[in-house]
Amino acid sequence: MKPHNSATLLPATLLSSTRSGLAWGLLGVTAFSFTVPFTRVAVGGLSPLFIGSGRAVVAAALAVAALSLTRQRLPSGTQWLRLGVVACGIVIGFPLLTSFALTTAPASHGAVVIALLPAVTAAMAVVRGRERPPASFWLVALLGAVVAVVFATLHEGGLAQPALSDLLLFGAVIAAATGYAEGGLLARELGAWQTVSWALVVASPIMVVLTVTAVLQQPQVGTPIEWASFAYLAVVSMFLGFFAWYRGLAIGPIARVSQVQLIQPVLSILWAALLLREELSWHTVLGGAAVVVCAGIAVRTRSTRPAGTPVPDIPDPGQAGVMCREGMGLE
Question: Which long-range contacts (CB under 8 A, 24 or more apart) does 209-218 make?
């Protein structure tokens, strides 16, 4: 009976692991859903260069403190290179590109970025992580992306001619998807919060230079609300949110967990309506419901792992790291 017992244990382990990954991913998505509205608020008084770079500098200071207090081991040679890829995607590329785009594009239009991210992240996971989702997954993922884009477009009353902000948003999608896929793989080796922390450290010299340049170009004079929005972008969007998001991607499968992010444009436009008083119409409600349905179907689609691939075991790099996560409420 032992073979039978072990055979039934493996699917149960996979199911439990997947649910855990989805739960962590949903927590990260909820944190990220405020990013577009708060960026839109912050650019009302602060320069986009300062917002995109300054938030990374603040987050890097928090990362250095966390890494030092928990005495984390240094990444290996190849891991440093991969951290550079993560840094270029989520620390440098996405924040800067979206900050400049949202100086002219409304928050609802910026939600298009989030609408495309799950499908692109899934594609990156296939290329980089050798995951093999079934055809049904791709069908639902593509449908979800199309629905989300139409949803965000109709919220604005129609799609205008492509502008510079659109190109910046598309560039941000590619940058973030690359950083998500590589970061999800690295989190299986370094740990979730350790990965984003080291990526922030890698990018910090560049972001410090850009922040100083922004301050020298023009004084950063914002209202208390604009500075509070900047603080959220730095502490939550750039740091704490990735604790949950990368842990979810590390548990994986990355392609499936990434589809949780289809819910993000719905939440972002909801926050934009509540905080920025942007219009919330009937087609927004219907489109949001359709996006949520697509996300639910996508995450329930069975995934196919490469032969011989075990269920990911997220490492605990030292007892101090465990204690830090428990103290932060992440365990």
Answer: 210/49, 210/52, 210/53, 210/96, 211/50, 211/53, 211/54, 211/57, 213/49, 214/47, 214/49, 214/50, 214/53, 214/54, 215/50, 217/47, 217/49, 218/47
Apex 169 CA angle, 51 and 86, nearest 5: 70
User: pLDDT (tens digit, 9 = 90+) per residue, 141-158?
Assistant: 777 777 766 765 654 555
Q: pTM of the entire structure?
A: 0.73
Q: How many CB atoms lie within 10 A of CB 259?
A: 29
Tokens of 228: 């509070």
Distance separating alpha carbons of residues 158 and 50, to the nearest angstrom: 31
Summarised one tens digit per residue, pLDDT across range 48-107 is 999 999 999 999 999 999 999 999 989 988 999 999 999 999 999 998 998 888 887 777
Q: How confident is the model at residue 274 (pLDDT cuts 50, 70, 90)?
A: confident
CA distances from 206 to 41, 166, 326 (A): 25, 25, 32
Residue whose C-alpha is closest to residue 118's, from 302, 295, 253, 316: 295
